[in-house]
Amino acid sequence: MAKPLMAMVFLLCFFALHSADDSSYRSLEYSILPRGLSDQKSLCSQLVQPAGYPCAEHQIQTKDGFLLGLQRVSSCDGDLEKQKGPPILLLHGLFMGGDAWFLNSARESLGFILADNGFDVWIGNVRGTRWSHGHTSLSEDEKEFWDWSWEELALYDLAGMIDYINSLTKRKLYVVGHSQGTIMSFAALTQPDIAEKVEAAALLSPISYLEHITAPLVRLMVDTHLDTIILAAGFHELNFKSDWGTVLLDDLCDRLVNCINVLSSITGENCCLNGSRFDLFFEYEPHPSSAKNLHHLFQMIRKGTFSRYDYGLLKNLRVYGQRKPPAFDLSRIPKSLPLWMAYGGSDELSDWTDLQHTIKELKSVPELVYLENYGHVDFILSMKAKEDVYDPMIKFLKSLGKSGIEYGDSGRNPYEFR
Hints:
This protein is α/β, with parallel strands linked by helices. The chain has one domain (2-13, 40-399): 3-Layer(aba) Sandwich (Rossmann fold). The protein is 37% helix and 12% strand. It is built from 16 helices and 10 strands. It has helices at 2-17, 43-48, 110-116, 150-169, 180-189, 192-195, 216-223, 226-232, 243-255, 262-267, 278-284, 291-303, 313-320, 352-361, 378-381, 385-399, and strands spanning 55-61, 67-73, 87-91, 120-124, 173-178, 198-204, 237-238, 289-290, 339-344, 367-371. The protein has an 8-stranded mixed sheet with strand order 1-2-4-3-5-6-9-10, with helices on both faces. The longest helix is centred in the middle third of the chain and has 20 residues, at 150-169. It holds the Pfam family Abhydro_lipase. Residues 45-104 form the Partial AB-hydrolase lipase domain. Keywords: Glycoprotein, Hydrolase, Lipid degradation, Lipid metabolism, Signal. Residues 1-20 form the signal peptide. Belongs to the AB hydrolase superfamily. Lipase family.
């Protein structure tokens, strides 16, 4: 009880001193997070092409005017203009971007592995991340730019990505999501016009219900209503590479939480990360998100719901015509849509009790892979993820019989088309 109370006092003082209009911050000799990249090159030129893989930048516009970055990746000896493999879209997690799929070596990173397996790889980047490109009329300095949560990411961003890839390739696509990318997928696939364009979905650290998360830093933020404090202080963008974001995390770790391993404080213990690549990871992560998005997620943790954003009684009546926000009905995901899910015993964000709740509401029976030692980030950054996660996932996708790719195990690129 004492720690949450002390944390609440600290956070109130912090946001009183560092209001949204305050541009003066103390200088830092050391920060747990390095500042953002000074050279804003493209994702293709930063991480994909230097590894020898063809990569093309695409841009789409959502129905509400956001300009999103998509990258298309081929195998080293492939041709982006003559892709024969099935399209597959990768969706990153909260405070991440499409770079998350390329932060290990080429032999260990899912984006490269899928390309080498003959897939037509597409990398999604949601609004607000550094690989997306703003808005048709709103500036990032305007609060309206940040007036969204994962609900809009699912129904606008993901819907737009799927429409674009489907129209360009003339094929249904596979969707692979991690963390926030899975909650987007669950919500989007309840919409028939989106689900009809998807061949199957593979979900890493799947979340829709969040009531039972145990990650210490997240529980601290939920218990102290940090999300409400942030919004009340006038913050709409959450950018932990900004001055105030870096100060906040540094002060939390100095005074309240043991953040020697900041990832463990947020996600739980990860078993198999390559410590030598942490500097690269924190060079790119975290990406910005919105305060409303965090507030929506924290609403779900407190209430145990998988619902649209809760505006409060009066605005709910105006927006939804009912007192409480409507729930996303997971039973509307087509029974015929194949689902594959991988979850970990040490994942403190994707809890088995919550996942059981999700599975119970689905009409179909998903194929499950359980990895006892895996934490939340292991599913995208583990040195063993290829053998533990990606190979079984690829085998599942190819077993569906519509991918047009043979599963092999020899040669530089053994996956030949039928």
